[in-house]
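Newbie here. three chains, one complex. Structure please?
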Amino acid sequence: MQLLNKFLKMITFPDLLKGLKITTKYVSKKKITEKYPEEKRSYPYRYRGRIHVTIDTCISCRLCEKACPEGCLKVFPPPREIMKTDKRPAQFYFSQEHCLHCGMCVDSCPTGSIHHSHEFEITVFNTKELLFDKEKLPYDMLKKQYKWNLVENVPTKVEVKKKEEV
Amino acid sequence: MNNERPSYLREIFETKEIELNMGPQHPATHGVYRAILTLDGERIVGLNSVIGYLHRGIEKWAEYRTYKQATPIFDRLDYLSAVINCHGYVGAVEKLLGVEIPKKAEYIRVICDELQRLASHLIWLGTHALDIGAMSVLFYAIREREAVVDLLEAQLGQRLLNNAYPIGGVRFDFPKGWVEVCRKFLKVFKGKIDDYEELLTGNRIWRQRTIGVGYISREDAIAWGLSGPTLRASNVFFDVRKSIPYSAYPDFDFEIPLGQNGDVYDRYLCRIKEMRQSVRIIEQALDGMPEGELKAKVSPIIRPPVGEAYFTVEGSKGQLGFYIISDGKEKPYRVHIKSPSFINLQGLDVMSRHQLIADMVALIGSIDIVLGEVDR
Amino acid sequence: MADEQNAKKGWEATGEPIITDAVQKAIEKFGSKVIPYPNPAKEATIKVEKEDLYEVLNFLKKETGFDYLSDIASAHFPQNEKHLSLAYHLFSIEKKDSLRVKVEFNEEDLIPTVSSIWPAANWMEREAYDLMGVKFENHPNLKRILLPDDWEGHPLRKEYPLGGPQEEEIRSNRYGVPSLLPDDLESAKKIIEEGKNE
């Protein structure tokens, strides 16, 4: 009887048919793949895309520069006379080429001027295009039209405070 | 042996050992790993591993950064389980500092670690099955991994190289609705593991390709320093989560699956059972989530006391250890990494003795190496 | 001033030495050859001379059940009297006990290999030789493992530059972190202009 059972199992392939059953189960189901360039998926709130700096709220404290493990940020504070009234940096450099997207600078910022956007399509043909200065950095961010609203998704700490005050 | 043959036979069937290169660009070596095989007919009689193609000097790199800054680079070790790598390094620094981590942070860490273990094992399952010839498992494994990675992305901010934990705790609590999504996923995922098992465990082709292949005995496995599921498949009870308890693992009730024979099939079964245990741990952690702080008080500039610490975690590949020497300054004096893949790859020499060359692919898949961790 | 003094003396580990059963047994057997070593993280550590290393490790495996060699880590201390050190991390699978054995020596000294006690030490020792330049005696295959065979120098030594001996020196920013950003405003502006024109 056992031998017969074994023989039957050998010629009827129950184990292989079981596997086939699972694969055929998905024939009629909806596809789970996304058509990426045409359809963009939504990103969670905490997604760490390219760095975005709100220069107006920056106080040139250089803490982000100190925290960066790759040294890809550089802040030039304004001259001392101006610093007393206007603390905005004279120049601000950021190199996307070496950025790890680790979030150390965002953790360290006391005013929340530096934060991650949801921009991830950062490929370029020339690496020289990956160095950003004060003028180029926020401009590029808003130029591209994305599905998500940048200001709503990534509020700075200062903005949150202002909203609360209102 | 050749001499015993009659001379006329030797003239016709003269056998000679030949050398064959496998890799560095071979799809089944899971990276840039080169094996120089010495073959006698179809049997492997010698193996010479050539590694180091992906050596990036991570240990040297870390010496030039402060303790905080060095955290993200260790994600690049085993890029398929970055969260666990981060836990290992951060844990070593915390051990050196003597910081007590809040209970809630430990629970969140355990949940993220176990999710990452699931993701890593799913990638292993898909690629290992693909190497042996079962194509469809890869699609299903990647589909579930996508869900895990989405969960990690919502919590940690990145999909693959998520600089997961700061020194002293975790960055955020779970976002709104995350716990419900996670529970839903775990419920579905249990059925999916059954699916994988139905596709592979009983499958006669799978069994013929894996049972009895790449055997390593209990004594050899310990002596060659293997760890993780590769060691446990040889019936050795060594799991860092139970043997050297860390984080919140003593709070949870889970089993360590052991194999009996130490072959490729047992290693496969061990990992599949481990996935079920991971699901169990996550469910318990979600149920018993305590209230409290997210981060212990750590001074912004970290200067650990002079001395050394060795902290190990159970990575998805095995025992992952970080040995840190501090000279009392802001930068680590020396960071040494015990990478499980590196040590497990050493045991491949023993496992591959007198195996067929066609089984080499199954063998490399079964020890689950990631070359980023081997070469550092 | 204090830094200079420390550099001359070489710094000592803080904390208290931890004495476990295994350490006690080793002290009973070897007497003053085995010295308990302080550790801030409360890990059992002993220090031995390189002449006694093989004997002590063999005893620890055979008599106290440390059957699993977890790791061999090397370190370089150019400011100390003895420049190199090795730390053997042992673990006992049955007793769930761990122990670190430290040994200090100089560059030219030969260290007995433990690959006859634990075969796992084979690649760990090759790694220590490759990256730190520790020379092992009677090792079955002491060759470079992570770096190419014709590499010069040992990268994890403290005097080895980050960018390699032949390569250009890597600049650091004002916080001591290696950085590839242009230093002055002029060159940065130039790069950005070139980038815009592309």
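Moderator note: Residues 103-132 of chain B form the longest helix (30 residues). Chain B touches chain A at residues 65, 68-73, 136, 143, 146, 153-158, 161, 163, 166, 171-172, 175, 195, 198-200, 202-205 (CB under 8 Å). Thread marked as resolved.
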